[in-house]
Write a structure and sequence with these properties.
seven-stranded antiparallel β-sheet; 36 helices; about 950 residues; disordered N terminus
Length: about 950
């Protein structure tokens, strides 16, 4: 070709320019074989003649690996034959099983951990809000999903270009997309960030965030359905090319099978394309046994809505849907060659297009005859008939023979006959596409819309006429089903595809299996982002069943880290499984680097389990912030406690700390070495809309808890009590606004503190002793007060009641055990003097021992100076331990009301004395949910179980 001459158009370009010629050009492309395959490619250090040669070589390597029995023993290995795994894999970059080329990929793209490399990051502590209305996000739905734009902010903060980013619970692979788009200018701009001429990324306040450039993602999931989606998002090199082929495939279907979605008006021979058909379930009246077609019974023609109050047209009985009797019928299942039972459904309304005008009609004899003709095709198509492993009592299924799931126990039971024939034909047509990338994207596209081709696709007649509407996070099947045509479902999706899948310009790898079994060298990953299963929120293996039935490769549900009665996995098992996964994440992460754990669950016990698992793995939590994804799933809408996702930032201690701690374990110096290191990892200053935000991790209580957890998880005795710790903390580290800092951090804090209008206090809801003490500290820090001043405020704060297990304490007890009161003698304490001088003009110039000042200050309670609070802490701890001993010696089998703070103090003291029996004895007496929802109690309890077992 001469220089400057125009390249010939690709098939894709010709298809879009000349849609009327699609049939000829599409058929021609199949005859010519692979299109544009000529250029040589390099892959993992090897050169190949073209992509087809690369794929053939690595498929052969993977096939050999699959013959090794030990390979299939890797944790989380999916359920599927060698042939089926190979058919959807595209090695070495994507395998529908554990990826045996992972180490080669890391060796080529990763860097060894180097102690000489200077790396320092504070946790990304800002709250993040990103909506879901984005073409990339919406290209393929999933049960839970974090927008890639939100993840980009974390990736940019913690990493540099070419760093390895790992997501072990990748779902759709959004972390991979985020890592790659750190090198995309438009994606950076979409965050509100700007890019400098020297490649620096600046945030909204023009602070340097990171360096521009793609990161290298490695993403893993237990589910083959999830990793297929992740491969579609992360390995597509020419997304714009797929649109033409997909459009041509849809046109081919319509030429050959479009008659299945046509209707005729009475007295007319013209056929009109059907948009969708509404089907209705048929019931019987519980009073007269008369037949009730749900659509006729419940649909209000005037309002266009489904009524809740029903009246039987036969006997006029007032009915509720729950009381209706479902009608069933027997039929011969051709695939299974047996007679089976299913619910009775009928087509009740057809929505179609007549020369650009939307119309609707009731099905007539011609329409019913057409459905019979379609049923004749059923024997000629292939479709999955797999038995659902989780029936009869799966988490989202319930009893096999209960209600709307009656007669549905296999994959093909989800489909109406025409839906099943259509989807089978579309699925098989994808094999005609000329490259594996195109075939994978066709599977990706069909998988994204499969619900629209099943009975789960409800018809909701409302202001928006929602045709494609299924309840996310469930397997619910409604009584009115929408059956849209392929054109109605796919045409818009195909048109938007080019803008929905970012083209891959950098390396990426996708693997399938358990995070606990992923084969990555230790200390080789630069950053980990994970969005783990949410306890019992979503049973992923059940929800992914239908997708995986078409792939013919299924999730190994035994490794699914969920709380599930069906799978015999309680919260303890879930915690153990999460700990195993997080231990692997800990091992592969470079020392000093960060893990971000995104989490949503309405149960405090699951939240505690995640924190417990992080601690067991060795991570140290440095921050908890909010991620608002803007929309809620059905599961989230029913949550009671948490309505936004929480993000935990934790780090892997650097090798220096661990080595020093090994030498200093159990000593005072080991404690302060940890605190110095931990304070160095925490944010120094947080400004939220001009207000100083208190950093909870810098407060003495959480610092003590983190220090204790660090010791306990490493099997080391904590060398002193809380009171001794607080006193030592005050003597060694500067304190500001109730937070502690390193000496070198204080100047920065003081400088930025001057820019804040005021202090944004942590929101508190007083429901137990700990929160009551925190609330009192807030009140008394800003204003020392008398008992009479505090009493009405305290009553108001506690009017919601204490937690049912918590013994309510009088305000006087809380004050006497935790705060100091000025009795009117001697000098007025500095805190009270400062408050009175600032708020009463007549007292400003008076010395601390002036009688008028002492009189005004008398009986005011105040927060003790941290350096002088040791004695008070010791007295409080002594009282708590006395109460703990009473619990231990009590003859009660279960304690109904008690002080949780006493149990915490007792567990801590017993651990220091190696008295694990005391911990276990009291743990047996308190409610299990209290134990499971308190991170510190759970930590001492689980570690005591281990220690006691060793002693036995």
């Amino acid at each position: 070709m001469k220089s400057g001459s125009k390249k010939p158009d690709t098939l894709t370009q010709r298809l879009f320019r000349n849609p009327s010629g699609q049939e000829e050009m599409f058929d021609k492309s199949l005859e010519e074989g692979l299109e544009e395959q000529g250029e040589r490619v390099e892959c993992l250090g090897r050169e190949f003649a073209n992509e087809a040669a690369r794929r053939e070589y690595y498929l052969g390597e993977l096939a050999q690996k699959l013959k090794d029995p030990d390979f299939r023993k890797i944790e989380g290995f999916p359920v599927g034959s060698d042939e089926d795994i190979l058919s959807i894999s595209d090695p070495p970059y994507y395998t529908a099983c554990p990826n045996p080329f992972l180490k080669d990929f890391i060796s080529l793209h990763g860097g060894q951990y180097d102690t000489n490399v200077d790396y320092s990051r504070e946790p990304f502590a800002a709250d993040v809000s990103e909506g879901k209305n984005d073409p990339v996000y919406n290209a393929h739905s999933y049960h839970t999903k974090v927008p890639h734009k939100a993840i980009m902010r974390y990736v940019l903060h913690y990493t540099e270009p070419r760093d390895l980013v790992f997501d072990g619970f990748c779902g759709t692979g959004m972390a991979g997309v985020a890592a790659r788009l750190c090198g995309d200018r438009s994606a950076i701009a979409a965050l509100g960030y700007t890019l400098t001429s020297d490649g620096k990324v600046l945030d909204e306040n023009q602070n340097v965030v990171s360096t521009f450039g793609s990161r290298i993602p490695i993403v893993n999931d237990l589910s083959p359905a999830a990793t297929l989606i992740a491969a579609g998002y992360n390995l597509t090199t020419q997304p714009e090319r797929f649109g033409g082929y997909a459009k041509a495939l849809l046109a081919k279907f319509n030429r050959e099978y479009g008659w299945m979605y046509e209707t005729r008006e009475p007295g007319s021979d013209s056929a009109y394309p059907v948009h969708f058909t509404v089907w209705s379930e048929v019931f019987s009246c519980p009073d007269c046994s008369g037949e009730l077609e749900y659509w006729d019974l419940a649909y209000d023609e005037a309002s266009g809505k489904i009524d809740d109050l029903l009246t039987c047209p036969h006997c006029s009985a007032e009915l509720a849907k729950r009381g209706l009797v479902r009608r069933t019928t027997t039929y011969f299942d051709q695939a299974l060659q047996q007679t089976r039972t299913r619910q009775v459904l009928r087509p009740v309304e057809i929505h179609y297009d007549r020369n650009g005008e939307s119309r609707r009609k009731k099905p007539d004899e011609n329409d019913l005859a057409l459905l019979e003709r379609v049923e004749g095709l059923l024997a000629s198509v292939k479709y999955p008939t797999d038995l659902m492993m989780f029936v009869p009592d799966g988490e989202e299924w319930g009893d096999l023979y209960r209600g709307y799931h009656e007669g549905i126990s296999r994959a093909h039971d989800f489909f109406l006959v025409r839906q099943l024939v259509t989807f089978s034909l579309l699925w098989s047509m994808g094999e005609e596409l000329p490259t594996e990338e195109l075939r994978r994207l066709w599977r990706f596209t069909l998988q994204s819309v499969v619900v629209s081709f099943t009975r789960r696709n409800r018809f909701l007649k409302n202001a928006y006429s929602q045709v494609n509407r299924a309840l996310s996070g469930t397997l619910y099947i409604g009584s009115t089903v929408s059956e849209p045509s392929p054109t109605y479902v796919l045409s818009g999706k195909i048109k938007r595809f080019g803008n929905a899948i970012p083209a891959n310009r950098s390396a990426a790898l996708v693997t399938t299996g358990s995070l606990a079994g992923v084969d990555i060298p230790d200390n080789s990953i630069d950053y980990v982002f994970i969005d783990p299963p949410f306890g019992d929120n979503l049973p992923y293996s059940e929800l992914n069943f239908l997708w995986e039935a078409w792939l013919r490769v299924f999730t190994n549900s035994g490794q699914d880290a969920v709380v599930s009665g069906t799978q015999r996995k309680d919260l303890g098992v879930y915690t153990d499984m999460m700990a195993a996964c997080l231990r692997k994440a800990y091992r592969i992460l470079k020392p000093g680097r960060w893990v971000t754990v995104e989490f949503h669950n309405s149960r405090n016990a699951v939240w505690t389990a995640i924190q417990e698992a992080l601690g067991r793995a060795g991570f140290i939590i440095a921050d908890v912030s909010v991620l608002d994804k803007g929309m809620k799933t059905k599961k989230q809408m029913h949550a009671k406690a948490v309505d936004k996702d929480l993000v935990i930032s934790a780090y892997k201690p650097n090798g220096g700390l661990e080595q020093r701690f090994h030498l200093e374990a159990g000593t005072e110096e080991g404690v302060w070495d940890f605190i110095r290191t931990h304070l160095g990892q925490l944010p120094v200053f947080l400004n939220k809309q001009g207000q100083l935000q208190i950093i909870a991790e810098r407060q003495k209580v959480l610092l003590f808890d983190r220090m204790v957890a660090f010791h306990v998880q490493r099997g080391v005795t904590v060398p002193f009590s809380a009171g001794e710790f607080y006193q030592g903390l005050a003597n060694r580290f500067p304190e500001r606004d109730g937070m502690y800092f390193l000496t070198e951090q204080v100047a920065e804090y003081d400088r930025k503190r001057m820019t804040a209008r005021d202090v944004l206090q942590l929101d508190l809801f007083v429901s137990d002793e700990a929160s009551a003490i925190q609330w009192l500290k807030q009140q008394l820090t800003s204003k020392p007060q008398t008992f009479m001043e505090l009493q009405p405020q305290f009553m108001q704060e506690t009017q919601g009641g204490w937690q049912k297990h918590e013994r309510p304490l009088e305000l006087s007890v809380l004050l006497e055990e935790n705060f100091l009161r000025f009795d009117g003698n001697g000098d007025v304490p500095g805190q009270i003097h400062s408050y009175l001088s600032s708020n009463f003009k007549d007292l400003r110039s008076l010395p601390k021992d002036h009688a008028a000042l002492r009189a005004k200050a008398k009986d005011r309670w105040y927060v003790p100076d941290p350096a002088k609070s040791g004695d008070l802490e010791k007295l409080r701890e002594r009282a708590l331990l006395c109460e703990f001993n009473e619990y231990r010696e009590s003859k009660q089998k279960k304690l109904k009301v008690f002080r949780v703070e006493a149990v915490r103090a007792g567990f801590r003291s017993s651990w220091q004395q190696n008295d694990y029996a005391a911990i276990l004895a009291v743990a047996e007496k308190i409610p299990e949910d209290i134990l499971q929802e308190d991170p510190m109690l759970l930590m001492w309890y689980t570690n005591s179980l281990t220690r006691a077992g060793r002693q036995a």
